[in-house]
Structures are given as C-alpha cells and as structure tokens.
Amino acid sequence: MTKDVLVSISGKHIDIMNGIPRDYDEDAGIEVVTPACYYTRNGKHYIIYDEVVEGMTGTIRNKIKITGTDVVEIMRSGLSSSHMVFEKNKKNLTYYRTPFGQMLVGVNTRNMKIDVGEDKIDVQVGYELDVNHEPMADCEIKMNIMSKNNADFSVLS
Prior knowledge:
With 157 residues, the protein is mainly beta. The protein is 0% helix and 71% strand. Strands 1, 2, 3, 4, 5, 6, 7, 8, 9, 10 and 11 form an 11-stranded antiparallel beta sheet that branches.
C-alpha cells in the first residue's frame, strides 16, 4: 500500500434508553471520506488523518492502529482526546475528553472483521457503547483504507 491513502469511515448506532432500543433511522449514520497517511511498523498498520470540527477552531488528530486481525485502536488528540481499544469479546474503558467535559466510555466489542489486501484494508466492528457505566448504544463502524491512486470510489458508498 502507498503512503498516501483515502479513508472512508462510516458508523451507525442504535440508541438504548433504559436497556430498550429506541427507533432507528437508517439515515442516521455518519460517513467521512478523507485523505490520510499510511505506514506499517512491527507488523502493525497505522493510518493518520486530521479532522476539522465544524464551528470550532482547531483540529483533531486521529491515529488508527490495526494489530493482526483482532485489535483496532483509535487514538484522538487535539480538541477531543481518547484512546479507544476494540478487542473481540472484550470490554475496554477509556476517558473521552471533549471541549465540554470528560466522560468514561466503555467499548464492548462483539464482533470484528479485518481484511488486509495489497492496496486496501477493510475493517468492520460491532460493539456496545456505554458512558459512565450507563448503556448508550449498539454501534457498528466500517473503515475502508485504500491507496489513493487505486481508490475505487464505488466501494465508499
């Protein structure tokens, strides 16, 4: 894979209120497509990109670390900071700092699929999210990382 890549990250969640799922809107998901830098070190894949936050000065630096086929880490620094670790069948806790305050976030990864190819990496993670030990949402995140010069935009939709 080349150093210059395109990253597509999409996420959906089903809000949980008192343990009961609320109505889910299929269009409620988010998707970001952005240029990024890619490198490998010690058999681990790293993807780094900056995120602009609408209505605020400054950015968030995002670093995604993929280890084998069973661990994905998302580290954010800047306006918001956190270090979320996704490991299949394991719950990890982190503090998520925002300009509005800090929260204790729990990520319980139910399933994970990582496919690494010559010019692309596909990641899919299903997890339960809780904030300050209160169940918040069932979530899914999909990441497609591909060499910029070989990007197939049809896979990004």
